[in-house]
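assembly run, all chains below
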Amino acid sequence: MREALDQWTFVIAAYAVTALATLALTAWSWLAMRAAERRKDRGR
Amino acid sequence: MHGFANPARFLRIARPMTGPLLWGGLLLVAASLWWGLTGVPAERLQGDTARILVVHVPTAWLGMAGWMAIAVASLAELVWRHPLAGIAARAAAAPGAVFTAVCLATGSIWGRPAWGTWWVWDGRLTSMLVLLFLYLGYLALAGAVDREGGSARIPALFGLVGVLNIPIIHYSVIWWNSLHQPPSLTTGGSTMAPEFLWPLLTATLAFSLLFAGVVLARMRALLAAAQAEARLRRRALEG
Amino acid sequence: MNTSALKPKHQRFVLLTIALIALIGAALLAAWALRNQASYFLVPSEMVATPPAPGQDVRLGGMVEPGSLKIRADGITVDFVVGDGDARVPVMFSGIVPDLFVEGSGVVAEGSLRADGTFVATNLLAKHDENYMPRELEDMTAAQKTQVVAETE
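ok done. output:
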């Protein structure tokens, strides 16, 4: 007996995990930087 | 070395580089993911799941490179006592942890159809999981020092000691029999057909550029926060 | 005054404890995984040289020898031979085999050795090597293949 898995389900899942994590990391770092630099400039 | 250690000089270089690295890196990442999905052929044995390699290998590389960056910066911080080195180490921790987690997740997703299991406790998988826990420990430690005060030398020492795990990860598949395959890319050459090699190298470059942009952005955020805090303290003393 | 004198000490204690727990946890996890299986499996020559006690749970890893794979009449039990070039171990397995389990490819079998020298597997894992070749290459002639490989190097 052989199990038959649809390989594309796994490929799409792996790419989706990578894309979401990368986007979230980039957006978070960029927004945190903007907020911190604005706070610094406001206090001047 | 000491040229970069000056925050003002660092910012003069970092400000114009952050945006292009971040957005250029993101664009190149998107392109390489598309190439991986549509341009990579099915592998002889693994079939379509071999495409997961294009996201798995670059994230593995950055998970390990992130800790090497932490270790080098920590060493610089301990030896030269310059705060910018500590800021660099802190900035590399979060992206390193994210990419290590993505590497473990994509590896697991690949393992189910390719090996027949989501997870095994072999040398490579276990040492990579240890790396993720080291990142979480470092983040908790550095966060606690920033919030509650304490010597910045403690996370630096932790970052230095943790680098012991990097050679273990690399050589785990060579020293011990493991379910994970040995490296396809070595200094001696590649055991990979060019159809797999070029998308993989492109994705590695793309993710590395993005990683550099993320580290610069996080360093600028940490610097700005430190400057704002220093000004507050000065005002409190004057007033 | 009293509390402020205690506070930094207290903080250092908490920080050191966190670091210590993280380090010990990491070390324990590594030690646990590497217990007596720094190697995830035994290869056939190791299993033949120093056979594990019958019934003891071990893993056997190697190549499925081409031509050795046979499916029994019940349709669910398979027999095959795992070799590493020096030694060969016959394996019996009942159950669902992984998608990518084929002759001439790597396998890791979990199970135990029977007194008669047959390895009875309870689970099979497919193992890959470091070679990545497109599927189309399989249909090529040997000469074409060598040429493509030569171009790759």
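The first helix of chain A runs from residue 7 to 42.

Helices of chain A lie at 7-42.

not gonna interpret more than that til we talk
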